[in-house]
């Protein structure tokens, strides 16, 4: 996930009544204790869990015939998001990036925990944060079952739990020579928006308005991930840039790839930018949270039908090869030179 260091502030809004878990009788101006904060904004009746928020541990009942998929992601202010990002968008994104990991494994969301560090407990801000997070959770049937709160620099760390049938998980080590490489949706808009915010380039306001939601409120491709069971061999979500993320599949599967950079799907806004900018965004830009997956040639018709059913473009962009390494080519098959790296928290400033 790319850094937002030195990014300008974004406007915030707050509407405590929008939080589906908030207590309408609570005085929004009253000081919040740690446990009142949890009770007011993050405690809801357990629906799937045996025991949810309020005890030393949550209790989840194993689902027969399934494996439990577990993933964690941390978002740190000034590193992963703008310090003044609207809290509703932040709540959405914090859960979305975790749900995206479940999607990449073909898992069905079940529950999540939230560890939250706050410089201060602002009731209106918390109401918006919880609203954005819990609205997305409800949309995917994923309930909050526990976590922790403390005072400190603004940080959100979530752990998600999902169910995947035994033998059906989409793993990084399962790509095979001859597989097609596919991408869902479009790539690069989040990086394009981030570059505008950092002053790397300047987009016309209408264009920035179109691409910014891809950075602030990404869509986890959960339905696609579950539908790819039995069709795809390997998959992952694109969080740090396609070149680096696809490289994880190649390394784990001990294969190579031929990637057509001109076939990579991009929005009309990104397609109107200079070619160098386009390549930077689609190849090395992070925060897309689209799925990159490999599948046998024989699944092309089934994938076309799936794309139509989900109303989600699926684009074939390359081929898995037995020869190690990633080779980039253009539409004519000519080699493409590209030196930028995907994002790395310790290699990037």
From TrEMBL:
Where the record annotates domain PurM-like N-terminal, the positions are 54-163
User: Could you say which residues bind substrate here?
Assistant: 80, 287, 343
Could you tell me what reaction this enzyme catalyses?
A: thiamine phosphate + ATP = thiamine diphosphate + ADP
Where is region (Disordered) located? 1-30
Top-level class of the enzyme under EC nomenclature: transferase
The keyword ATP-binding appears for this protein: yes
GO terms in the biological process aspect are: thiamine biosynthetic process; thiamine diphosphate biosynthetic process
Q: Write out the pathway annotation from the protein's UniProt entry.
A: Cofactor biosynthesis; thiamine diphosphate biosynthesis; thiamine diphosphate from thiamine phosphate: step 1/1
Pfam families listed in its UniProt record:
AIRS, AIRS_C
User: Which GO terms of the molecular function aspect are on file?
Assistant: ATP binding; magnesium ion binding; thiamine-phosphate kinase activity
- Where is Mg(2+) 5 annotated to bind? 240
For binding ATP, which residues are annotated in this chain's numbering?
147-148, 172, 239
Give binding positions for Mg(2+) 2. 73, 101
Please list the residues that bind Mg(2+) 1: 72-73, 148
Kindly list the positions annotated as binding Mg(2+) 3: 56, 101, 237
In short, the EC number is 2.7.4.16
Give residues annotated as binding Mg(2+) 4. Answer: 56, 71, 101
Keywords attached to this Swiss-Prot or TrEMBL record, sorted alphabetically, are:
ATP-binding, Kinase, Magnesium, Metal-binding, Nucleotide-binding, Thiamine biosynthesis, Transferase
PurM-like C-terminal domain spans which residues?
Answer: 177-329
- Work out whether the entry's keyword set contains ATP-binding: yes
Q: Which HAMAP family does this UniProt record tie to the protein?
A: TMP_kinase (MF_02128)
Annotated family: Belongs to the thiamine-monophosphate kinase family.
Matches recorded under NCBIfam families: thiL (TIGR01379)
Q: What else is known?
A: Reaction mechanism of ThiL seems to utilize a direct, inline transfer of the gamma-phosphate of ATP to TMP rather than a phosphorylated enzyme intermediate.
Question: What does the UniProt function comment say about this protein?
Answer: Catalyzes the ATP-dependent phosphorylation of thiamine-monophosphate (TMP) to form thiamine-pyrophosphate (TPP), the active form of vitamin B1.
Q: Under what name is this protein listed?
A: Thiamine-monophosphate kinase
Gene name on record? Answer: thiL
């Amino acid at each position: 996930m790319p850094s937002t260091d030195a990014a300008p502030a974004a406007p915030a809004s707050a509407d405590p009544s929008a939080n589906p878990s908030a207590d309408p009788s609570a005085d929004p101006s009253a000081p919040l204790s740690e446990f009142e904060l949890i009770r007011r904004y993050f405690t809801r009746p357990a629906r799937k869990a045996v025991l949810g928020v309020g005890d030393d541990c949550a209790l989840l009942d194993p689902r027969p015939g399934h494996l439990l998929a577990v993933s964690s992601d941390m978002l740190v202010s000034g590193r992963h998001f703008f310090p003044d990002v609207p809290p509703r968008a932040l709540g959405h994104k914090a859960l979305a990036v975790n749900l995206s990991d479940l999607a990449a494994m073909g898992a069905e969301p079940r529950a999540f925990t939230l560890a939250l560090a706050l410089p201060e407990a602002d009731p209106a801000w918390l109401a918006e944060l919880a609203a954005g997070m819990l609205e997305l959770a409800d949309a995917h049937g994923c309930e909050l079952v526990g976590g922790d709160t403390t005072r400190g620099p603004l940080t959100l760390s979530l752990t998600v739990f999902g169910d995947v049938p035994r033998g059906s998980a989409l793993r990084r080590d399962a790509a095979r020579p001859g597989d097609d490489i596919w991408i869902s949706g479009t790539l690069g808009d989040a990086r394009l928006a981030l570059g505008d915010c950092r002053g790397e380039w300047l987009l016309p306001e209408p264009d920035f308005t179109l691409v910014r939601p891809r950075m602030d409120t990404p869509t986890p491709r959960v339905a696609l991930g579950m539908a790819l069971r039995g069709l795809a061999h390997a998959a992952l979500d694109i969080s740090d840039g396609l070149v680096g993320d696809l490289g994880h599949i190649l390394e784990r599967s001990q294969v190579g790839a031929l990637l057509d950079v001109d076939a990579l799907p991009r929005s009309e806004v990104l397609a109107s930018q200079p070619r160098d900018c386009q390549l930077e965004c689609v190849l090395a830009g992070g925060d897309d949270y689209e799925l990159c997956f490999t599948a046998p040639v024989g699944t092309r018709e089934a994938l076309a039908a799936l794309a139509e059913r989900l109303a989600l473009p699926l684009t074939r962009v390359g081929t898995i090869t037995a020869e190690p390494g990633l080779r980039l080519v253009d539409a004519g098959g000519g080699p493409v030179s590209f030196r930028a790296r995907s994002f790395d928290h310790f290699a990037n400033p």
